[in-house]
Amino acid sequence: MPLGKGELTTTATSLHILELIVDHGWVTLRGLVEETGLAKSTVHKHLSTLRANDYIVKEGERYTLGLYFLTVGKRAVEFRESYQLVEQKVRELGSRTDAEVDFTVEENGRLILMFEAAGATNESTFGTGTEFFLHNTAAGKAILATYADSKRDEILDTQGLPATTNKTIQSREALHAELEQVRENGYALNDGECVEGYRTVSSVIKRPNGSALGAISAGGPAYRIDQSRLKNELADHVRSATAEVTESLVEAQSTL
Predict the structure, then answer these.
(1) Which pairing describes strands 198-206 and 131-132: parallel, antiparallel, or unpaired?
(2) Dihedral sign computed on CA atoms, order 17, 19, 23, 26
(3) Which of 68, 113, 209, 254 could form a disulfide with 54 if both were Cys (CB 3.0 to 4.6 A apart)?
(4) Element (H or E) spanning 159, and its range?
(5) What's the rounded Cα separation, in Å, for the pair 191 and 195?
(6) Within 10 A of 10 (CB to CB), how many other CB atoms are there?
(7) 3-state DSSP assignment of residue 5
Protein backbone atom coordinates (compact mmCIF):
# COMPACT_ATOMS: atom_id res chain seq x y z
CA MET A 1 0.00 0.00 0.00
CA PRO A 2 2.24 2.86 -1.23
CA LEU A 3 1.62 6.26 0.30
CA GLY A 4 1.01 9.40 -1.70
CA LYS A 5 2.83 12.63 -0.95
CA GLY A 6 1.66 14.15 2.31
CA GLU A 7 -0.34 11.10 3.46
CA LEU A 8 -0.32 9.95 7.08
CA THR A 9 0.63 6.31 7.53
CA THR A 10 -1.86 5.68 10.35
CA THR A 11 -4.79 7.24 8.50
CA ALA A 12 -3.88 5.45 5.27
CA THR A 13 -3.79 2.12 7.10
CA SER A 14 -7.23 2.67 8.65
CA LEU A 15 -8.66 3.59 5.26
CA HIS A 16 -7.04 0.55 3.65
CA ILE A 17 -8.65 -1.70 6.25
CA LEU A 18 -11.96 0.03 5.66
CA GLU A 19 -11.63 -0.53 1.91
CA LEU A 20 -10.95 -4.23 2.50
CA ILE A 21 -14.18 -4.44 4.49
CA VAL A 22 -16.00 -2.69 1.63
CA ASP A 23 -14.54 -5.15 -0.88
CA HIS A 24 -15.22 -8.30 1.13
CA GLY A 25 -18.46 -7.33 2.87
CA TRP A 26 -17.07 -8.55 6.16
CA VAL A 27 -13.69 -9.53 7.57
CA THR A 28 -12.21 -11.13 10.66
CA LEU A 29 -9.26 -9.92 12.71
CA ARG A 30 -7.28 -12.97 11.66
CA GLY A 31 -8.14 -12.48 8.01
CA LEU A 32 -7.02 -8.85 8.08
CA VAL A 33 -3.74 -9.79 9.75
CA GLU A 34 -3.06 -12.32 6.99
CA GLU A 35 -4.07 -9.96 4.19
CA THR A 36 -2.29 -6.83 5.40
CA GLY A 37 0.77 -8.42 6.99
CA LEU A 38 0.39 -6.11 9.98
CA ALA A 39 0.74 -7.15 13.60
CA LYS A 40 -2.42 -8.41 15.25
CA SER A 41 -2.28 -5.68 17.88
CA THR A 42 -1.97 -3.00 15.18
CA VAL A 43 -4.94 -4.27 13.19
CA HIS A 44 -7.00 -4.54 16.38
CA LYS A 45 -6.27 -0.89 17.25
CA HIS A 46 -7.40 0.27 13.81
CA LEU A 47 -10.58 -1.80 14.04
CA SER A 48 -11.29 -0.47 17.52
CA THR A 49 -10.88 3.12 16.30
CA LEU A 50 -13.22 2.55 13.34
CA ARG A 51 -15.78 0.91 15.66
CA ALA A 52 -15.58 3.75 18.18
CA ASN A 53 -16.44 6.21 15.41
CA ASP A 54 -19.34 4.09 14.08
CA TYR A 55 -17.75 3.32 10.72
CA ILE A 56 -17.83 -0.44 11.34
CA VAL A 57 -19.66 -2.83 13.65
CA LYS A 58 -18.68 -6.20 15.07
CA GLU A 59 -21.00 -9.18 14.73
CA GLY A 60 -19.46 -12.16 16.50
CA GLU A 61 -15.97 -12.47 15.05
CA ARG A 62 -16.88 -10.53 11.92
CA TYR A 63 -16.41 -6.84 11.22
CA THR A 64 -18.68 -5.14 8.69
CA LEU A 65 -19.66 -1.63 7.63
CA GLY A 66 -21.82 0.41 9.98
CA LEU A 67 -25.07 1.95 8.84
CA TYR A 68 -23.57 5.31 9.70
CA PHE A 69 -22.42 5.34 6.08
CA LEU A 70 -26.07 5.87 5.09
CA THR A 71 -26.04 9.10 7.07
CA VAL A 72 -22.71 10.15 5.57
CA GLY A 73 -23.90 9.46 2.03
CA LYS A 74 -27.15 11.30 2.57
CA ARG A 75 -25.34 14.35 3.93
CA ALA A 76 -22.95 14.30 0.96
CA VAL A 77 -25.96 14.65 -1.34
CA GLU A 78 -27.83 17.18 0.82
CA PHE A 79 -24.86 19.53 0.89
CA ARG A 80 -25.05 19.76 -2.89
CA GLU A 81 -28.29 21.70 -3.37
CA SER A 82 -28.14 21.38 -7.16
CA TYR A 83 -28.64 17.62 -6.82
CA GLN A 84 -32.18 18.15 -5.51
CA LEU A 85 -33.14 19.84 -8.76
CA VAL A 86 -31.50 17.05 -10.76
CA GLU A 87 -33.30 14.33 -8.80
CA GLN A 88 -36.66 15.91 -9.59
CA LYS A 89 -35.77 16.08 -13.29
CA VAL A 90 -34.68 12.43 -13.33
CA ARG A 91 -38.00 11.32 -11.84
CA GLU A 92 -39.96 13.47 -14.29
CA LEU A 93 -38.05 12.06 -17.24
CA GLY A 94 -38.46 8.48 -16.04
CA SER A 95 -42.21 8.96 -15.79
CA ARG A 96 -42.46 10.69 -19.17
CA THR A 97 -40.38 8.18 -21.16
CA ASP A 98 -40.96 4.97 -19.18
CA ALA A 99 -37.27 4.30 -19.75
CA GLU A 100 -34.54 3.76 -17.17
CA VAL A 101 -33.23 7.22 -16.32
CA ASP A 102 -30.35 8.10 -14.02
CA PHE A 103 -27.96 10.84 -12.98
CA THR A 104 -24.28 10.03 -12.55
CA VAL A 105 -21.24 12.07 -11.57
CA GLU A 106 -17.51 11.59 -12.01
CA GLU A 107 -15.41 11.43 -8.88
CA ASN A 108 -11.81 10.27 -8.68
CA GLY A 109 -11.93 8.93 -12.22
CA ARG A 110 -14.99 6.74 -11.72
CA LEU A 111 -18.67 7.24 -12.50
CA ILE A 112 -21.07 7.07 -9.54
CA LEU A 113 -24.83 6.60 -9.91
CA MET A 114 -26.61 9.16 -7.73
CA PHE A 115 -30.32 9.00 -8.68
CA GLU A 116 -32.43 6.73 -10.83
CA ALA A 117 -36.03 6.32 -11.97
CA ALA A 118 -37.55 3.54 -14.03
CA GLY A 119 -41.06 4.66 -15.02
CA ALA A 120 -44.28 2.82 -14.28
CA THR A 121 -43.67 -0.40 -16.24
CA ASN A 122 -39.92 -0.75 -15.83
CA GLU A 123 -37.37 -1.74 -13.21
CA SER A 124 -33.96 -0.25 -12.54
CA THR A 125 -31.05 -2.38 -13.68
CA PHE A 126 -28.51 -0.78 -11.37
CA GLY A 127 -28.67 0.86 -7.95
CA THR A 128 -27.70 4.09 -6.23
CA GLY A 129 -23.99 4.13 -5.48
CA THR A 130 -23.05 1.75 -8.30
CA GLU A 131 -19.67 2.65 -9.80
CA PHE A 132 -18.70 2.44 -13.46
CA PHE A 133 -15.74 3.23 -15.68
CA LEU A 134 -16.01 6.29 -17.89
CA HIS A 135 -14.85 4.94 -21.25
CA ASN A 136 -17.59 2.31 -21.68
CA THR A 137 -20.65 4.25 -20.51
CA ALA A 138 -22.68 6.93 -22.28
CA ALA A 139 -22.53 9.22 -19.23
CA GLY A 140 -18.80 8.67 -18.82
CA LYS A 141 -18.10 9.53 -22.46
CA ALA A 142 -20.38 12.57 -22.27
CA ILE A 143 -18.42 13.83 -19.26
CA LEU A 144 -15.01 12.97 -20.71
CA ALA A 145 -15.91 14.97 -23.82
CA THR A 146 -16.05 18.12 -21.67
CA TYR A 147 -12.63 17.61 -20.06
CA ALA A 148 -9.32 19.06 -21.11
CA ASP A 149 -6.93 16.56 -22.70
CA SER A 150 -4.71 16.57 -19.62
CA LYS A 151 -7.53 15.68 -17.22
CA ARG A 152 -8.91 13.02 -19.57
CA ASP A 153 -5.47 11.43 -20.02
CA GLU A 154 -4.84 11.46 -16.26
CA ILE A 155 -8.05 9.47 -15.72
CA LEU A 156 -7.23 7.01 -18.49
CA ASP A 157 -3.67 6.57 -17.19
CA THR A 158 -5.09 5.60 -13.80
CA GLN A 159 -8.19 3.62 -14.79
CA GLY A 160 -7.08 2.18 -18.13
CA LEU A 161 -9.58 0.87 -20.68
CA PRO A 162 -10.76 -2.41 -19.14
CA ALA A 163 -13.16 -4.43 -21.29
CA THR A 164 -16.46 -5.48 -19.72
CA THR A 165 -17.99 -6.74 -23.00
CA ASN A 166 -16.67 -7.46 -26.48
CA LYS A 167 -17.97 -4.03 -27.57
CA THR A 168 -15.96 -2.03 -25.04
CA ILE A 169 -13.66 0.57 -26.59
CA GLN A 170 -10.09 -0.73 -26.31
CA SER A 171 -7.93 2.05 -27.74
CA ARG A 172 -7.49 5.71 -26.90
CA GLU A 173 -7.62 6.57 -30.59
CA ALA A 174 -11.09 5.05 -30.92
CA LEU A 175 -12.22 6.76 -27.72
CA HIS A 176 -10.89 10.16 -28.84
CA ALA A 177 -12.73 9.82 -32.15
CA GLU A 178 -15.97 9.01 -30.36
CA LEU A 179 -15.54 11.93 -27.98
CA GLU A 180 -15.30 14.23 -30.99
CA GLN A 181 -18.63 12.82 -32.18
CA VAL A 182 -20.11 13.39 -28.72
CA ARG A 183 -19.14 17.06 -28.87
CA GLU A 184 -20.75 17.43 -32.29
CA ASN A 185 -24.00 15.65 -31.34
CA GLY A 186 -24.41 17.02 -27.83
CA TYR A 187 -24.97 13.51 -26.47
CA ALA A 188 -23.13 10.19 -26.05
CA LEU A 189 -24.28 6.67 -26.83
CA ASN A 190 -23.57 3.29 -25.29
CA ASP A 191 -24.73 0.10 -27.01
CA GLY A 192 -23.67 -2.92 -25.00
CA GLU A 193 -20.21 -1.54 -24.17
CA CYS A 194 -20.67 -1.69 -20.40
CA VAL A 195 -23.34 -4.40 -20.04
CA GLU A 196 -24.29 -6.72 -22.87
CA GLY A 197 -27.67 -5.91 -24.37
CA TYR A 198 -28.03 -2.59 -22.54
CA ARG A 199 -28.31 0.75 -24.36
CA THR A 200 -28.21 4.33 -23.10
CA VAL A 201 -27.93 7.88 -24.35
CA SER A 202 -26.54 10.63 -22.13
CA SER A 203 -26.02 14.39 -22.01
CA VAL A 204 -24.13 16.58 -19.56
CA ILE A 205 -25.47 19.09 -17.03
CA LYS A 206 -23.09 22.03 -16.70
CA ARG A 207 -22.40 24.24 -13.73
CA PRO A 208 -22.61 28.02 -14.18
CA ASN A 209 -18.81 28.06 -14.70
CA GLY A 210 -19.16 25.67 -17.63
CA SER A 211 -17.73 22.54 -15.97
CA ALA A 212 -19.61 19.25 -15.92
CA LEU A 213 -21.82 18.67 -12.88
CA GLY A 214 -22.80 15.21 -14.08
CA ALA A 215 -24.86 13.51 -16.76
CA ILE A 216 -28.44 12.36 -17.20
CA SER A 217 -28.87 9.08 -19.08
CA ALA A 218 -31.92 7.28 -20.47
CA GLY A 219 -32.15 3.79 -21.92
CA GLY A 220 -32.66 0.18 -21.00
CA PRO A 221 -32.40 -3.37 -22.35
CA ALA A 222 -32.03 -3.61 -26.13
CA TYR A 223 -35.28 -5.56 -26.44
CA ARG A 224 -37.12 -2.50 -25.09
CA ILE A 225 -34.99 0.29 -26.54
CA ASP A 226 -34.21 0.08 -30.26
CA GLN A 227 -31.56 2.20 -31.96
CA SER A 228 -34.09 4.56 -33.54
CA ARG A 229 -35.75 5.39 -30.23
CA LEU A 230 -32.38 5.77 -28.53
CA LYS A 231 -30.93 8.20 -31.07
CA ASN A 232 -34.06 10.23 -31.61
CA GLU A 233 -36.71 10.29 -28.88
CA LEU A 234 -34.49 9.57 -25.87
CA ALA A 235 -31.59 11.66 -27.16
CA ASP A 236 -33.94 14.64 -27.51
CA HIS A 237 -35.32 14.07 -24.02
CA VAL A 238 -31.94 13.93 -22.27
CA ARG A 239 -30.58 16.95 -24.15
CA SER A 240 -33.68 18.94 -23.26
CA ALA A 241 -33.57 17.83 -19.61
CA THR A 242 -29.89 18.67 -19.14
CA ALA A 243 -30.31 22.02 -20.89
CA GLU A 244 -33.20 22.90 -18.55
CA VAL A 245 -31.24 22.00 -15.42
CA THR A 246 -28.16 23.85 -16.68
CA GLU A 247 -30.26 26.96 -17.29
CA SER A 248 -31.88 26.67 -13.85
CA LEU A 249 -28.47 26.48 -12.17
CA VAL A 250 -27.34 29.62 -13.99
CA GLU A 251 -30.53 31.46 -12.98
CA ALA A 252 -30.17 30.31 -9.37
CA GLN A 253 -26.63 31.64 -9.17
CA SER A 254 -27.64 34.97 -10.68
CA THR A 255 -30.11 35.56 -7.85
CA LEU A 256 -27.52 35.07 -5.10
Answers:
(1) unpaired
(2) positive
(3) 68
(4) helix 149-159
(5) 8
(6) 12
(7) coil
The contacts of residue 163 (CB under 8 Å, 6+ apart) are 136, 170
| DSSP one-letter code for 234 | I
User: Does residue 256 register a pLDDT over 60?
Assistant: no
Does CATH number 1.10.10.10 belong to domain 9-70? Answer: yes
The string of pLDDT tens digits covering residues 39-96 is: 999 999 999 999 999 888 999 999 998 887 777 776 665 556 678 888 889 999 999 9
Do residues 193 and 136 touch, judged by C-beta distance below 8 A?
Answer: yes
The Cα–Cα gap between 118 and 125 comes to 9
pLDDT tens column, 204-246: 999 999 999 999 999 999 999 999 999 999 999 999 999 999 9
Q: Is the dihedral of CA 138, 235, 210, 131 positive or negative?
A: negative
